Amino acid sequence: MLKNIIKKTVFVLLMSFIVISLCSCSNDSNADANIVESMKIYIFRNDKFLENAIWQYNSMYPGKKIVFINIDSLDEYRSRISSEIMAGEGPDIIYFDSYTIKNLYKIFQTGAFYDLPPFFKIR
């Protein structure tokens, strides 16, 4: 059961990256085709499953790249996520459990997150 939840979470994470990447594509004919688009994600405590999924994604899509930053301390993770999001910075992708980010509802209310479900076809 937990393995299925993790697989679904990673799938949504990677699909989110693909959707965001496609939305940011340029139609400019002068755009440099060799530029690698990258997005940043913070990982809490060496999540090997997620690191492996990112490695596989980076291998499959060489023009796109997910860069992960490992943070070992829960207090540092919470602090960096909260302060950087409120400053309009931080990671492009946020992967978390409900216990890792305090005041998540307040952060949602600031409009710091983009609503992705409209990009997914619901069956």
The CATH topology of the domain at 35-112 is D-Maltodextrin-Binding Protein, domain 2
Written as H for each helix and E for each strand, in order along the chain, the element string is HEHEHEH
Q: Any guess at the CATH architecture of the domain at 35-112?
A: 3-Layer(aba) Sandwich
Helical residues, percent: 40-55%
Give the amount of beta strand, in percent. Answer: 5-15%
The average pLDDT is 74
**How is the quaternary structure best described?**
single chain
Distance between the termini: 22 Å
How many β-strand stretches? 3
Radius of gyration: 15 Å
Summing up helix and strand content along with how strands pair, one would put the structural category as alpha/beta
> Which CATH class of the domain at 35-112 applies here?
Alpha Beta
Largest sheet: 3 strands, parallel
Question: Shape, please?
Answer: globular
| Sheet with most strands: strand arrangement | 2-1-3
**Uncertain spans, ≥5 residues at pLDDT below 50?**
24-31
SS field, number of helical segments = 4
Helix/strand layout:
Blueprint: H1 2-23, E1 37-44, H2 48-60, E2 64-71, H3 74-86, E3 93-94, H4 104-109
